[in-house]
Amino acid sequence: MPWLQLKARIAPEQAELLEELLLAEGATAITLQDAHDDPVFEPERGTTPLWNETVLTGLYDDLEGLEIMLERLAAAWAETMPEEPCPVIEHELLADRDWEREWMEDFKPLRMGQRLWIVPSWHEPPDLDAVNLHLDPGLAFGTGTHPTTALCLEWLDGLAVASELDGLEVLDVGCGSGILAIAALKLGAAMATGTDIDPQALQASRDNAIRNDVAEHELTLCYPEQLAAGHRFPLVIANILAGPLVELAPTIAGHVAPGGRLALSGILEGQAEEVLDAYRDQGLSMDEPQLREGWVRLSGRRPA
Ligand SMILES: C[S@@+](CC[C@H](N)C(=O)[O-])C[C@H]1O[C@@H](n2cnc3c(N)ncnc32)[C@H](O)[C@@H]1O
């Protein structure tokens, strides 16, 4: 059976309204994607980074009445947001495919460093003797396919290979799918705490922890404000974009114990100096940046 797809490019702050309207018209699935890999990193200090434009698509199994549906959408938009013109909504007929399975087929097991494999939960691990992290990202960020995550996973794997992760307590700021916190545990850390501002990320992290037989006492998941300011960790990792990393430098650096290590990711090459300065100002000694596809991972240490 073919599908009808409606698609609009829209400002991120208007996406929620259009999503509601598409759902009200009976969309079977809604997808939100960044239009470009081009985030607005510095919207304003203290606010969550946004992307300039979002691509919103709705999928319908009812192919009849397209014109009427578009008219109803335009009328509902005008009623709710009369001051803004209704976005241009394109339509397309799509041949029948198993959309969910196609996405899953694109996500293959990935090797990170020497020991670690990220294995989609629907795949068999390619190497049973490796450290295999079984992952389903759900609605959260963090599959390992993005360079920012891969740089962090390789850093964790490198520490494990050098036996510098064993028994440590790790903080993962912006845990997303939980990929970094769970990888740290599987590579030898004793305990981990993951924080995120997004409830769906905390849920995905919880699900992935269960999927990987992580015991409840090994992984604490909470909102950032629930973590005690004085709680210091020998290893802190944060993959959350340059703006918030700079903004949160006193808080994030404040969690690094004397002699402890820090890794920061989500930083574009041109932003590395500003982030380095922010963490040097907090008393950390910082290493040479590591670069991948225009993204940078920074690491450093708090003197003992
Ligand atoms: C780029 S994703 C990283 C996910 C995962 N840690 C990884 O490496 O793939 C960034 C995550 O940080 C979260 N986040 C953004 N700002 C945050 C903040 N101020 N404190 C905690 N989490 C934050 C987002 O909700 C998102 O889940």
From TrEMBL:
Reactions this protein catalyses: L-lysyl-[protein] + 3 S-adenosyl-L-methionine = N(6),N(6),N(6)-trimethyl-L-lysyl-[protein] + 3 S-adenosyl-L-homocysteine + 3 H(+)
Matching InterPro entries: Ribosomal_L11_MeTrfase_PrmA, Ribosomal_PrmA_MeTrfase, SAM-dependent_MTases_sf
Domain of life: Bacteria
Binding site for S-adenosyl-L-methionine: 149, 174, 196, 239
Protein name (record): Ribosomal protein L11 methyltransferase
HAMAP family recorded: Methyltr_PrmA
Keywords: Cytoplasm, Methyltransferase, Ribonucleoprotein, Ribosomal protein, S-adenosyl-L-methionine, Transferase
Origin organism lineage: Bacteria, Pseudomonadati, Pseudomonadota, Gammaproteobacteria, Oceanospirillales
